């Protein structure tokens, strides 16, 4: 699916002195996959994020302080607009835009005897709204498309997600131009309409 969320609780992850245990999620196919993991670093007794990739070098990311401080570690992976967002205990740890193909499998990943519980998989734009949801405020009379699909503003606002491709249009006026968050941005005139496009990176307001 174009939008999905994986969630799981890691109840326990043993940390033997001769291993680098890790737990997380794996997405992809047999030949092209990504593993989003929290790994125990035996060299210094800390935890860190590691993204393992089938066709490229792994990415060793930030340290994660005391992920089991509450007696468990909650992890989440959101996929939206061709981008992955990996969370540990509700904190965003890593974001990456990589492709493993439109048709791929998803699941848990366990490097060494981790115990999982309460894992879930949900699809649809709404599963990403809590973490990625943003509000677009538009002026009256504007036509809005999100990723090519026409939507209707409610009380002058539209729900969007990070990474959405937005197209706004309105009947062209002499010297008319769109303003995005108070700053003029590229406006085209097409068949009597002023048209502009942008990608959602935050809360936005569009005027004309």
Tell me what the structure shows.
- There is one protein chain.
- The protein is mainly beta.
- 2% of the residues lie in helices and 56% in strands.
- Strands 8-7-6-1-10 form a 5-stranded antiparallel beta sheet, with no helix packed on it. A 5-stranded antiparallel beta sheet has the order 5-4-3-2-9, with no helix packed on it. A 5-stranded mixed beta sheet has the order 14-11-20-16-17.
- Strand 12 (143-146) and strand 13 (149-151) form a beta hairpin.
- The protein starts with a strand and ends with a strand.
Primary descriptors:
2% helix; 20 strands; five-stranded antiparallel sheet; elongated; 208 residues; 1 helix; mainly beta
Q: How would you briefly describe this protein structure?
A:
This protein has 208 residues and is an all-beta fold. Helices cover 2% and strands 56% of the residues. The chain starts with a strand and ends with a strand.
What is the element layout, followed by pairings?
Elements (H helix, E strand, L loop, with lengths): L3 E9 L9 E7 L4 E9 L4 E8 L5 E6 L8 E8 L2 E6 L2 E6 L8 E6 L4 E9 L5 H4 E6 L4 E4 L2 E3 L5 E5 L3 E7 L7 E2 L2 E2 L3 E3 L2 E7 L4 E4 L1
Parallel strand pairs: 11-20
Antiparallel strand pairs: 1-6, 1-10, 2-3, 2-9, 3-4, 4-5, 6-7, 7-8, 11-14, 12-13, 12-15, 15-19, 16-17, 16-20, 18-19
- CA(first)-CA(last) distance: 35 Å
Arithmetic mean of pLDDT: 93
Tell me the overall shape: elongated
Main sheet: strand order: 8-7-6-1-10
Q: Rg from C-alpha positions?
A: 21 Å
Low-confidence region ranges:
none
User: What's the number of helices?
Assistant: 1
Give the topology string: H per helix, E per strand: EEEEEEEEEEHEEEEEEEEEE
Question: In which range does the helix fraction lie?
Answer: under 10%
Structural class: mainly beta
Strand residue content? over 45%
Number of strands: 20
Largest sheet: 5 strands, antiparallel
């Amino acid at each position: 699916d174009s939008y999905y969320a994986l969630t799981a609780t890691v109840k326990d992850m043993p940390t033997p002195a001769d291993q680098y245990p890790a737990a997380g999620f794996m997405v992809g196919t047999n030949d092209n996959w990504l593993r989003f993991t929290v790994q125990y670093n035996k060299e210094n007794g800390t935890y860190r994020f590691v993204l393992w990739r089938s066709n490229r070098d792994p990415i060793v990311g930030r340290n994660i302080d005391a992920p089991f401080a509450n007696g468990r570690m909650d992890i989440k992976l959101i996929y939206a607009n061709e981008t992955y967002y990996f969370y540990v205990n509700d904190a965003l740890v890593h974001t990456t835009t990589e492709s493993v193909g439109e048709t791929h499998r998803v699941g848990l990943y366990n490097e060494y005897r981790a115990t999982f519980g309460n894992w879930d998989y949900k699809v649809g734009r709404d599963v990403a709204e809590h973490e990625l949801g943003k509000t677009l405020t538009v002026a009256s009379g504007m036509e809005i498309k999100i990723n090519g699909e026409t939507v209707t503003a409610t009380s002058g606002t539209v729900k969007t997600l990070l990474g959405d491709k937005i197209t706004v249009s309105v009947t062209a006026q002499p010297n008319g131009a769109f303003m995005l968050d108070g700053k003029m941005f590229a406006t085209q005139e097409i068949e009597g309409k002023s048209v502009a496009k942008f990608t959602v990176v935050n809360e936005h307001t569009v005027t004309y």
